[in-house]
Amino acid sequence: MGTIICQICNNTIDHFENEKVATLYGQCNCCDEKQEEGSK
Questions:
Q1: SS3 for 26-38, per residue?
Q2: What pTM, to 2 d.p., does this model score?
């Protein structure tokens, strides 16, 4: 089983099935909204 973690706030975003254990970094919706507000 793998885990997707937000690279900004380190919250767990999702889990996925995988043969190997893996941790992937992405960006959660909460952090997406904060960045969009900051760039306006």
A1: ECCHHHHHHHHHH
A2: 0.67
